[in-house]
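question for whoever is on the cluster today: can someone run the full assembly for these? two chains, 592 residues total. i dont have access anymore since they changed the login thing
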Amino acid sequence: LDQALSAASNYYDLSPLKAIMKDDEDFLLLMLHTFLRSGKENIVALDSCLLTKSSKTIGEVAHKMLNSYRQLAISETIHDLEQLELLIEIENPDFDVVKKSILNIKHISEIVFRGIEEEIVNLETP
Amino acid sequence: MQKILVIDDEIYICTLLERYLKKEGFGVETAFTGKSGLAKLKTESFDAVLCDFRLPDIDGRQMLSEIKIISQQTPVIIVTGYSDVRMAVSLIKSGAFEYVTKPIFPEEILEIIKSAIKASGAGVVFPSEMEALEPKTNSQGKYFTSGESPKFKEALKHAQMVAPTDMAVLIQGETGAGKEYVARAIHDQSTRKDKPFIAVDCGAIPKDIANSELFGHIKGSFTGAINNKEGYFEAANGGTLFLDEVGNLSYEIQVKLLRALQEKVISKVGDNKTIKVDVRILAATNEALSEAISNNSFREDLYHRLNEFTIHLPPLRERKEDILAFGRFFLNQANSDLKKNILDFDAETIDIFLKYPWYGNLRELRNVIKRGVLLSQSELFTEEVLPIEIRRFSSDSFEQINNGISFIASESIGGLKNASIEAEKEAIMNALISARYNKSKAAEFLNIDRKTLYNKIKQYNIEVDF
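^ ran it for u. tokens below:
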């Protein structure tokens, strides 16, 4: 994990977001804080849905996550999120496979969250 | 200040749009559920609504219909993932102004909001395909956008043949296939070309006001009728009335429409007097009306009245020659709208365009190109600016993905299909092992291209990262 953390920024790309913000650092900070808050909530939700095997809700959470994860180009998670999104329509999935996808998303997300936290510190430091 | 309501359960999207649109000078309210969004609409007026297609409490179709009941004039823009794009395109026929796919690009949303407010201010209540396909004229006043395929040319030839007559024409085709374009072409080549052409989306008119919208009403005829109102029939007098999605009209309206066609008279709601009208009717449907007739939801006599001549417009996927013709037209249109100068599509993009099935037809093609132009950094339109769902499309995988036969579902599908999937998976595994996980070599062994192999690996969740 430590090795991965040192290269956390390889797992996401803030440039599309920065292009939208047009040098507005406050806006960027607001979006990064928002991403962290909702991202962490969604990971917790995925975990608890996995315990209760609520496949439809997993699909709905994945659907919610996809927009920000795509916008920040967290590409290592996109395929898993897209597959989980299909659970909105699919009944009786193979939960071993679902679990594997959720673990991957969780693992990458943890790295990204730490990277984003560092970005926030850098932005907030005068 | 113009006000926008953003309804989305994802706080990231609400925050992004709220802040961005405020910077652009709009007032913005957000709601995280369908119910709270509807509650806001009941107490405040908004110039446009952005609504997520998948809300936790109310689905997009129902939201659209509830918003239209509360505030019929407010344009609604549906925000959706690409997997729901077919559904989103169909919502345009139910009165949505436009759809936009995730991920969100605020500049794109801003552009759509501006068009929506402009259209609503101009009294365009029922936006339709025409806006997407608005024909432009060159210096000779002729259309310069037209399909290249024999099927589209044949449809236009039929339109040209029937145009000078006063025959009613029924245009059949999928949503977004260009039915209104053909209707407009008929009107513009008819003797009525200098008179009004009124396009009405029957799917977008709430049932309880359809009578008044089509035929007008007199003051005091019902609660809310505070003035006399001219209906679409009167507005189109001397010209052409285009009734899109005619299959959505209620039985009561069908009776009045039949009378208008047979006797050329109408009567306003609340008035016994009849008014003579001279209107040519062009109608369109994306469904087989014969089925509606057999289950008694559409009158057979009206069907025969509307169907004096039929033009069938095939979907875009059945007329591939048109994809590039319209694609380049939309590219120029997007260049002009977004002040860009993208010269053309690169070879890979053209290849993908020709393979992709374009279930949303011309509307989907236009939206994909416009977003691509917005995102393009080079002079060529490359595949990188296409939505990932289109980019990774291959004829082998798309239908299966769409039908949910993903790695997640494969376990629950039994029988022959499952057996063939397992055999294919095994063949891919063997090829990968033989090629020491070199995907190009494995694709060669399997006699398929690399892209197809990638799609299969994803589809079957084959572990290759070790």
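summary bc i know u wont read the tokens: Residues 415-434 of chain B form the longest helix (20 residues). Chain B has three domains: 3-121, 130-314, 328-459.
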